[in-house]
């Protein structure tokens, strides 16, 4: 068996950089449509230690599935400001869902985490919002440490 490393997965799965951080590649687009969009889409997503998935939100639910590597922390801020976190990893849980409209980001402490993300109805960048650090601090000052840690601008 090949040694499982972040670079091995990046090469083998032909991952590309993602605008929110990390590496990704779309793996599935449903042929079934809901209006003008696919009913569901899925990606492989890899996050390395020292990088993070910046806080962002979608208009749809997104389900995360753990595949390989080290535990990944999925951080969420609900529209009313409630903070929660789920640690996906080899000891479980193996999946978590981010409800539509929640801000969320992810981090991994060591090595890497390889996960899958499924969005229904299917993902479209027009449904993707990555607010600035300043706007998030204005809206959620009680979460300043997390916001500073999981934003780039």
UniProtKB/TrEMBL annotation:
Highest taxon above the source species: Bacteria
SUPFAM superfamilies reported in the protein's UniProt record: RmlC-like cupins
InterPro entries reported for this sequence: Cupin_DUF985 (IPR009327), RmlC-like_jellyroll (IPR014710), RmlC_Cupin_sf (IPR011051), YML079W-like (IPR039935)
Membrane-spanning parts: none
Sequence ranges assigned to domain DUF985 in this UniProt record: 7-130
Protein name: DUF985 domain-containing protein
